[in-house]
Amino acid sequence: MQILRAVQYAPRAPFRLIGEVSGVSEQTAARRYHALRRSGVMRVVGLVNPAVHGDAQWIARIRCRPDRVGPLAGALARRPDIAYASIASGGSEIICIIRSPLDAPREDMLLQQLPRSAAVLDVSIDLLIHPFGSTDTAGWTGYGGHLTPEHKHLLAGGPRPAPAGPLLPPTADDAPLLDSLSEDGRTTHTQLAELTGWSKGRIARRLEALENSGTLSYDIDLLPERLGYHLTATLWLRTAPTRLQQTGDEIARHDEVAFTGATSGNHNMMTIVVCHDAEDLYRYLTTRLGATPGIDAYQVSIRTRRLKQAASLISHGRLVHPAPA
């Protein structure tokens, strides 16, 4: 678990450092990481900030007939503009995140492409306004392990600078670089140089520029089910605007939380939590969440099937890279 923690904190850290903070050799750290990746439990992915292309992220909740939810959800998950997709609420609701321009008519981004039949009963689409959590708190960390401040300093090579901005639009020459990182965020400088025909020095400088501007970031996709955590729920929370930032930041620090962000909906926060089972979820709701000030109301959608997250399709219980559209 310590290897997962280290990779989640510093996705491109050398195996030498990952081994050092995990208490194992460089070879053992590399072997365990590659075993997890081959088995489909985890993937490190490079992600381009959608704002570079003028896109915002929208959260859609699609309620449809249970006998049609599977094919519709599968078709949505294969679309490149869908960043996340799951089936929830007893198999009758699809939750997905769509990347689309802020000024795009909502019917253009999704509704016109849904089957015009009685299969779709209701659709709501809200804007994801702001994600909560810093680099240290982003993502699910409930699987265990712990990094000390010394470990974090070692993995990051010193204090991490905040993205300096403005965003740096990728060029056509960046396409092979970014495509390779979207499939494997740990692709080495040597491998990237072979793919692009650039020198390793040029690769390092370009990555640094894209990362420091906030254009390129890295995420770790995990399948909690493979680690013994079989219940994932989406919580729709409501809090007063004056408490939104404070409440969101506090929730983002919970180990059980995989994501939390402010939205434009009636419930102005969306939070995804990962638990062992129903009793574990009850414990979280009544203790950690219950002790968080400022929450006025909540709803719970229980995920029954995970189809896509970040940059990975999920097939037969494994993370896989999406096929080209």
Which keywords apply here?
globular; Dimeric_a/b-barrel; Alpha-Beta Plaits; two-stranded antiparallel sheet; 8-stranded antiparallel β-barrel; 12 strands; Transcriptional regulator; alpha+beta; 325 residues
Q: How would you characterize the overall build of this protein?
A:
This is Transcriptional regulator. Keywords: DNA-binding, Transcription, Transcription regulation. It contains eleven helices and twelve strands. It is of the alpha+beta class and 325 residues long. The chain has a domain of 86 residues: Lrp/AsnC effector binding domain/regulation of amino acid metabolism (RAM) domain (Alpha-Beta Plaits), CATH 3.30.70. The strands form two sheets. It has an eight-stranded antiparallel beta barrel. Helix 1 packs across helix 2, helix 2 packs across helix 3 and helix 8 crosses helix 9. It is globular, with a radius of gyration of 20 Å.
List the helices and strands and how they pair.
Elements: H1 2-9, H2 15-22, H3 26-38, E1 42-48, E2 55-64, H4 69-77, E3 82-88, E4 93-101, H5 106-109, E5 120-131, H6 149-156, H7 175-183, H8 189-196, H9 200-212, E6 216-222, E7 231-239, H10 244-252, E8 257-263, E9 269-275, H11 278-289, E10 295-309, E11 312-315, E12 318-320
Antiparallel strand pairs: 1-6, 2-4, 2-5, 3-4, 3-10, 5-8, 7-9, 7-10, 8-9, 10-11, 11-12
